[in-house]
């Protein structure tokens, strides 16, 4: 099973409604995607947001990433966010969100992208 966690730091509060709408669309897409076992959204305050999913396989996760709302969101990330962090890893068991956030902060495989404000 593949666990994926993403952290998104919003560029400015005026982008919040658009970001939340897009997040909900992506969440719904994930829940209805082949191979999705779990999808969850979370936040820390009003400028830091998390996406958290479990997938049957890497192939299923990648098929989701590049289609529909998520595929379109990839083109909008730089405009909406000042920083994004991503991590995906293989596991035999479901992982809780707290553990996934901890892995995101500490794992050397975490990819962090910082955009200009």
Automatic annotation (TrEMBL):
This protein's name? Antibiotic biosynthesis monooxygenase
> What organism is the protein native to?
Wenyingzhuangia fucanilytica
Its lineage opens with:
Bacteria, Pseudomonadati, Bacteroidota, Flavobacteriia, Flavobacteriales
